[in-house]
Amino acid sequence: MLAFLDRGNIGNARIAGLEKDFNLDSNGYQWLINVFYIAYVLAEFGILLWKVFPPHIVGAIVVFGWGLIATVQAGAQNWGGLVALRFLLGVFEACYGPGIIYLLSFFYLRHEVGFRCGIFASAAPLASTFAGALAYGITSGHSHLANWRLLFLVEGLPTVLLSVIAWFFIPDSPEQARFLNAEEKEIVKSRAMRQVGVDAKARIGIPRLPDLGAVLIDWKAWLCALMYFSGNVSYSSLPVFLPTILKDMGYTAINAQGLSAPPSFAAFLCALVTTWVADKTQQRCFVLFVTSAVGGAGYIILATVETVGVRYFATFLASAGVFSTIPNILALTLNNQGSDTRRGMSLVLINFIGQTGPFLGTNVFPTRQAPRYVEGMSICAAFMFFSAVLALIQRYLLVWENAKLDRKYGTAPPKERTDFMGSDDVGLEDYGPKFRYVL
Q1: Under a CB-based contact definition with an 8 Å cutoff, are residues 232 and 383 in contact?
Q2: Using CA atoms, how far apart are residues 247 and 136, in angstroms rounded to an integer?
Q3: How many CB atoms are closer than 10 A to CB 307?
Q4: How far is Cα 179 from Cα 104, in angstroms, rounded to an integer?
Q5: What is the per-residue pLDDT across 279-302, written as a single tens digit (0 to 9) for each?
Q6: What is the four-CA torsion angle of 301, 306, 309, 310, rounded to 10 degrees?
Q7: CA angle 396–397–400, rounded 5-degree value
Q8: What's the Cα-to-Cα distance from 320 to each of 96, 111, 293, 351, 431, rounded to whole Å?
Q9: pTM exceeds 0.85, yes or no
Q10: Which of 86, 101, 195, 251 fits a 20 to 30 Å CA distance from 116?
């Protein structure tokens, strides 16, 4: 949650005085956002550090790094300095967010990992909820320090402190988790053998090179990457522009900060519900179709309706759709890759492609379009509907792949959701005979 808070608070800082103090025009603000994502894309291979080195070391370093940089933003004296800090922030966050998603795949089986992705990714709308409320509290005061500087300090310092907790509490493997007893650790060993056919401790090490290359020619990974690109066009722009959009609806800057919280909280709940439903039904593509369509409908209303109340309702639809789509794409990516290396490389691929979406998404809301931002809303709607279409195409192709596997190995029995293995369940999730793609 703190990562998303530190990433997205530039939008709150903008209307809290940053724009005025630095004489920012629309182009200058866009570059503060763009440079973060340039760094984020370039640093994507940092995801694999979580496999090569002990996760508690990687986690603590990246948490401390982004927390320190997020805090130091409060001392920026000019636009150039803030641009440099935003670049470094992107490097450290690129190694953290996708890395944690990757780490979750070491702990949870295919039918479990989606909801856990939802819990983690739902921190984004939850952070936006707190960002609005927290920014409202900070900017409504009368501090001797500029409100935007105080905002960066208050939201950055807790992350620095959290890095100490990360060092001691991020487990290097499920077997080394402090919160598991001896019996639970035995279950963990069984689950690791079922998942990839090796002991949990053996999963930390150098990635398998053939698996890295296999992902690059896997159409499933590329389709997920295109969906992730489409979702990120909207996902990246919504937190940083929602306060501005609400302000341009006629609300004061302070009220706009507060009113951005309810849509974000609704999105938080939807992200949890949709990932849970997709895990239970194993019908993730259908869930993705619905979430993408809901998000697209919200943007259509924002682009075509002028009534303030209706437009505010549409922010709920857009937020719920966008923030529910992203974790389900991440889960679908993990669901349909077998080995640890393939899962890690697929996350690198979808982030490398998908995180270029923000270059478009964060550049389609220039101030000249205020107050309705019709062009920006229309572009975001188009990409959300494109994501919905890709979800249906993906499902059709996965059904075809499963039919081929049924012809080769026989019809797969219903998935036994148990922590204990049968004799033929070693490496089951690493393309074993019972492996079938999640639809």
Answers
A1: no
A2: 13
A3: 11
A4: 15
A5: 999 999 999 999 999 999 999 998
A6: -20
A7: 95
A8: 24, 23, 11, 21, 34
A9: yes
A10: 86
